[in-house]
Amino acid sequence: xIVCPNCNHENPNGAVQCEACxxxxxxxxxxxxxxxxxxxxxxxxxxxxxxxxxxxxxGTATPQPDVPIPAAPEPxxxxxxxxxxxxxxxxxxxxxxxxxEPIEAEPALTSPNLDEEAEVSAEPEPVHSPKPAQPxxxxxxxxxxxxxxxxxxxxxxxxxxxxxxxxxxxxLHIQTNTTIDLPPHLPxxxxxxxxxxxxxxxxxxxxxxxxxxxxIHACLRVEGDVHYxxxxxxxxxxxxxxxxxxxxxxxxxxxxxxxxxxxxxKVTFIFQSA
Length: 274
What we know:
By secondary structure, the protein is mostly beta strands. Among the domains are: 1-62, no CATH class; 169-273, Tumour Suppressor Smad4 (Sandwich). Helix content is 10%, strand content 22%.
């Protein structure tokens, strides 16, 4: 079959032009490698891969010219290299060493007689001390006490009256309108129901629908005046402002935040300050 190079239509062997598009078809020739019929404009045989570009138009292979291979140079024998003499230039002689002349030590300076000056300066001049003041005989002790200035009062009493005011946080249960004060001395406040592992600091078992609350449900972390709520792996989840709180993640609480323990908003608290 002869494939049309224009439309790829398969034409029978011996066809001169394509039956579909009437394009002149290339002639066929025989591959010298395997004897298969190939098109005259093909570069390689499709059967054996023979390079058809080496053929002349008559179909015979063009002989390749012989390329002479240059002979490798003979290696230089090691004996010739070893016996080759290397010319080393003679180095100039070094300069003679010059010894420095010795330095004579200067004579020590004679110090003056310091003992005589010390004896002269050791004699102090007489110092006249002032006479002590005599008390006034006309002034009585009561008058002296009245003249003396009063001592300032100690400031300890002022320091003792200073008190720090700490904002007390609360949880308001919406369903029963019950207020729960958060313990101010606990850095970690656990919320849940009585259990044998970790007793809760805030027990919600007495509130309605408490069956949806886990025994170890959530906890409040206190850092200064900042409160965080964290779900510790409850069964029904913890919701802050109707948004689920992933287990292990903590959320910073602000005044007015809505906390729901479990689904359905059945056990709900409002975070507020006292």
